[in-house]
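Course assignment 3, question 2. Fill in each field.
Student: A.L.
Task: Predict the tertiary structure for the chain below.
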Amino acid sequence: MAIDLSPEPAVADLAERTARFVREVVLPVEQRHAAATPSEAVRRELQDAARGAGLFAPHVAPEYGGHGLGMRGRAAVFEEAGYALLGPLALNIAAPDEGNMHMLELIATPAQKERYLRPLAAGEIRSCFAMTEPAPGAGSDPRALATRAERVDGGWRINGRKWFITGADGAGFAICMARTSGAAGDEGGATMFLVDADNPGMKIVRHIETLDETLYGGHAEVLFDNCDVPADAVLGEVDEGFRYAQVRLGPARMTHCMRWLGIANHARDIAVRRAGERELFGSRLGELGMVQQMIADSEIDIAAARGLILQASWELDQGRSGAQSTAIAKTFCAEAIWRVVDRSLQICGSLGVSGDIPLGRFLREVRPFRIYDGPSETHRWAIARRVLRRHTTAAAR
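Answer field:
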């Protein structure tokens, strides 16, 4: 049976137009604004340009202004958008908004979609996803969830502390995970709540200083202090939050991989150009065997990462859980993308370390990816458990 991994013509066209847009529109804006975190005016400027180019919010359904791309279609477009650090922001496919849109489309009620999804998909507001907590709360193990929500007259009262909540500053609303039954360590008993940013019970405590600086709105510590929400703030069903989280987290891991793969491509291109221009010891860098090996290894890492993304995306498009394939892809991509950027910086030498080219910034941006969306060690543990369970089951037959 023939295997064709190329995207459909309409997706290929969208990816090509995205690539041109990122290079011609986004990169000049990115270079003009040296500050790591762009202003709200820059965000709107870029998103207006993407909307005018017909590239905006390609992942959401047409009724919300998008192209309705499946996961494989997103792989092609998101990789091109990720060539610039601000590319995903321009197309409104940056984390955490992209993952929240995906989940709202699948889980929210019609009224919730109108109130939250539609303005989010249009870029009128931003959002955040409040699940991670300071130790000993939920982190790599979401079952440690400590934030609680209790029923009160007319709705629920949420109490707890969250941290590393990306994009919380300036978000129009949060999707907050809170325990509604059971105790920390239990597998069930979590519920998702939609909390408006003007709720007096939700407060940003501080901004956390981190290696990465490009994710819009930064990473905040957020306190839910007697935060009252109405009954219709429940997203999905009560006590089903952990199950719904998988609806978001598997695809979100893959879209992170897609976007960061674009950065790996950009880093590789910078290094290859440098290797073709720089002369040392009587020859160009690119003619030296050690440099050729680094270029080849980066090309292998990029190709392998792309293949694993496509495999996992295909499984998700088929309606499968993709738990194993997304864990494998996320672990490999997070480490491979780091290797590509690191090699590219090494090839460029002192220029790579300098601020004259963006490789140092790329390195800071991609390093946390080996921790975000589950550390590599946690994914390896889960991957091994599934393999061992499969073999144990097969042996018992």
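Instructor remarks: Residues 242-396 form a domain with the Butyryl-CoA Dehydrogenase, subunit A; domain 3 fold (CATH 1.20.140.10). The longest strand covers residues 155-166.
Grade: pending
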